[in-house]
Here is the input.
Amino acid sequence: IQAMSQLGIDIGGTKIVLALGDEQGEPIRSTRAPMPLSGDWEADLRAVAALAETLLREATQDDISLRGALERIGVSVPGPIDADRGVLINPPNLTNWQDVPIGPWLAEKFGVETRIENDANAAALAEARFGAGRGVDDLVYLTMSTGVGAGVIAGGRLIAGSFGSAGEAGHMPIELGGRLCACGLSGCFEAYVGGNAWRERLRAELPIECRAVELAKGDRSAVTPEHLVSAAKQGDAVALAEFDRWLDDVVRGIVPIVMLLEPSRIILGTIAVAAGESLCFEPLRKKLARVLWPQQSARVEVVPAALGRALPERAGLAVAMNARSARAAD
Here is the structure.
């Protein structure tokens, strides 16, 4: 019996990760490389395709049953995208990659179905299949990194919405007329808890005499959320108070998510994972218990993302497996 394989591709602003997976999406072989950015998207895609061909060739040398058995390609890309058409619209970190038909181009090149998803949705699918979301059908994943990307899975299915952008929890307003967000709106969840926005606030508001600034070698203009988290873990009072303030803003974003979707699990990535259980998750659950209905706070799990550095290998494969599952359901 010929084994069928899935190809996952994770495209980022600086690097690309390709992974070949088995029929269950488990990685067989993977490779990482700097993201080719020549200024010509088609030349860049040809370079990506060459990396994929090398990966496939090496895999079939190891396992002859995989030869000619590529079933599907899944691609994780920074948004915004048109997933139905397989088009990457205008990502901020990929110069000259505007309106790029990644899905159709790769489908023609390799002769297999190709599906693309924005990176937050791909991460949600990966955590659901391989990580902290296993065993539940209703979850919300929040990246909690540079910005606040989000992916929503309800009833076992990724929610896309009428226009393909459903689940953008990072751009829910948590304060009308509040801080300006990088997206152009004001008061967004991301403008309060996203890494970039938090960094700028720390640099403007932290007192010079505090541990986070010390960790930044005394330069407040160099302070990052990582410095703040490290200082809080060391027990610095200023950092602990600032982190508590950040958690209050996280609560303001999570409560409407719970009220609207009532997922059984909320998965937080990056900053929250780095902060850990005692600094972040334990106090966050207590804060949520005070503002949710008791039956909700008792049942909604708030947990750290599990995949960490393995996420790029899993993201594209999860997109491929999700497309496979959707096809089977239809």
The chain has a mean pLDDT of 93. The CA atoms of residues 264 and 300 lie 5 Å apart. The chain is about 45% helix and 20% strand.
